[in-house]
Here is the input.
Amino acid sequence: MYAAEQTRYGVRLLIGDVRGKGMGAVASVAVLLGAFREAADEEPDLPGLARRLDRALDRDRERRDGGGEEYLEGFTTGLLAEFVHNPDDPDEVCDTLRLLNRGHPPPYLLDGGTVRTLEAAAPDVPFGMSDLGGVRTVPDEVAFPPGATLLLVTDGVTETRDREGVFYDPEVRLSGLGPVTGPQQAVDVLLRDLVTWTGGAPVADDRAVLAVSLSQR
Here is the structure.
């Protein structure tokens, strides 16, 4: 799943991967997307937004499963991103990116010919596992250069294997494929290279890819 919302606090993004398949997974996606779209414009920071998603998922699982196996084992990895908004100048191009990672593959910053993995400073548990405690991290902040592209993926990308069983590494692979000039090219280059990596073998897992850049006003 993925979503993007223009909010009073800036542009906010969500990408996630629900454990399991079938109607239970579909229901979790619907709950999380609905909660994100509502809370993204209400919560002043990403930790508050993450707590809202946790509560929405917990309530839905309790209603459907009554505390059984799905409640104990169901979870969703997710990544929240926020391009910081200047409330005094809504037309100002944002140059700061905040990230809050809840057990999800890290995003990538593509800037010209360079690719950088934006690893979380501290690990945290996925959505739906808040009862286990966890680090409850504060968001990471990184500079977002003009013309850069943010690339977010699910583990269907990072766990793609070649014929020798080696996992795909977007930072290593994309760094050798030349400068990327925008989101559409980033997605196209990534998907073509995944086909090359697997030798055209069938895809074994679902994939979601979201690429974002900021327009220059």
Notes: The chain has a mean pLDDT of 87. Helices lie at 22-39, 46-65, 69-73, 155-158, 170-175, 183-198. Strands lie at 2-7, 10-18, 76-84, 96-102, 108-111, 114-117, 140-143, 149-153, 209-212.
